[in-house]
Amino acid sequence: MGVLHMVAPKPFDGIVPRALPGEARSYTYASGVAELAIAGMLAAPPTRRLGGVAAAALFVAVFPANVQMAWDARNADRARRAIAFGRLPLQGQLIAQALRVARGED
What we know:
By secondary structure, the protein is mainly alpha-helical. The protein is built from 5 helices and no strands.
């Protein structure tokens, strides 16, 4: 997904909360770079636990974008609403898994 943020940023720009200062594209690129860096950390055994902490932090940081996506989809078709609202509880599961990695449990 980090690469996708760089090569096809427009969909990601659309879910950046409008209340954030600055250009949406800056947040899209920054989150893409963060995702790529964290993937590298998770892949390398010496930095895996730190990568788990970083992943949990990133999942918390991007949660407002998921809320924005759900808000924007509130009047959309059923499938789009299901995807947008389904992402919200999934974020908690991703955070929990990242914390398990951080503790060395996975």
